Amino acid sequence: MTTPDVRHRSGFACFVGRPNTGKSTLTNALVGTKVAITSSKPQTTRHAIRGIVQRDDAQLIIVDTPGLHRPRTLLGQRLNDVVRATWSEVDVVGFCVPANEKIGPGDRFIATELVKLSHHTPVVGVVTKTDLASRQQVAEQLVALQDVMEFADLVPVSAQDGFQVDQLADVLVSRLPEGPRLYPDGELTDEPEATLIAELIREAALEGVRDELPHSIAVLVEEIVAREDRDDLLDVYANLYVERDSQKGIVLGHKGERLRTVGASARRQIAALLGSKIYLHLHVKVAKDWQRDPKQLRRLGF
Ligand SMILES: Nc1nc2c(ncn2[C@@H]2O[C@H](COP(=O)(O)OP(=O)(O)OP(=O)(O)O)[C@@H](O)[C@H]2O)c(=O)[nH]1
After folding, report:
1. Where is this region: G4 (predicted)?
2. Which mutation among 15, 24, 141 tests ligand 1's pocket best, with the greatest number of atoms within 8 A of CB?
């Protein structure tokens, strides 16, 4: 229960950083196993919700961002625009740098971008994977990180052994505005995995084409099976349904390139969700006017 002298806070956070810096693992450590059903997300964010930290005094919603890349193509630039838009929509950003790796050009590139928004969105420096470094190394990394940009706060954590995970939650929560829960309790879910996976794929597929295909994509996970003779690999079979042939083209992209990107992005998230390597078999199908056909709708899980 919220005590009268502590005001309830709620809002959004995202973690940014080079690939492999521990963002997903940290999100999972903060959130536990509860995942939000993104189809019921509040209108305040257009981005995939990775999880919700639910406390008596706060609700912290962690959203996902695709990685920021040095743009080489127009698509790369567009993607980066999406990333920046997300960063400026959240209440607090966590910039993740692992304790056991030297800060490099990739980190500095991200920092240059973060500095631009740090006057209106607080950026917390997060030194991750502290269990892989000595105390001395962690201390040095904190100092080195401070040289990269000015942070609202600095927190070393290990998602692996739980070191300072609660403290990080406190720091992030302290940066949220006062406000009521954005999700009622009931919307945190232990949804069947297939529903969550379908939602992750749908979100990935909508990224960047939401305006063109706002409500025209549905995803059905047909099967999740363990690969024979392997205990570390799951095959996930999913179909992505659109209403018209023209929409199929949009989803596939030139020579199927867009679908491959969508698949790769969804695969990473599904792997994080299931804690296993996965192979995603993703196919696009046209289900004519599925939004108006109750039979189709039921089949697609609506
Ligand atoms: N020892 C240790 N390993 C960690 C920790 N956090 C993450 N890892 C490992 O580091 C690797 C990358 O972690 P992820 O959470 O996937 O990193 P990410 O930043 O989300 O990666 P991308 O999705 O590629 O951007 C995985 O093998 C994790 O198991 C930690 O606190 N300690």
Report:
1. 128-131
2. 24
